[in-house]
Amino acid sequence: MDRDIYDRKTALKRIGNNEKLFDKYLTISLQEIPVSLDKLKQASAVDNLKSIIIHAHSLKTMAATIGACRLRDAALELENAGKSRDIEYAHLLIDRVSHEFEKFYMLAAET
Question: Would you state the pLDDT for residue 16?
């Protein structure tokens, strides 16, 4: 498994190696991340930097909790682009965030 995309082992350690709890977090996150991505796309469509920052931060936190490393990094970069008021870069990063989620989802589904 590509640990730079999905680091389940480290994520499990963060919650005391509780598989049941981790699986619950993972299930909830896999439902909530697409909602956050939709909200990011809506915010991007109207150049709403404040909303982009909020949803990118939320996505970053979810990704970190479940060990989605590259998704977390992309969400952090998106959050920072919003804070820097770089809307053009934020538009580009939303596509990257979506792509990283797709890759993570594929790996997570295998476990």
Answer: 95
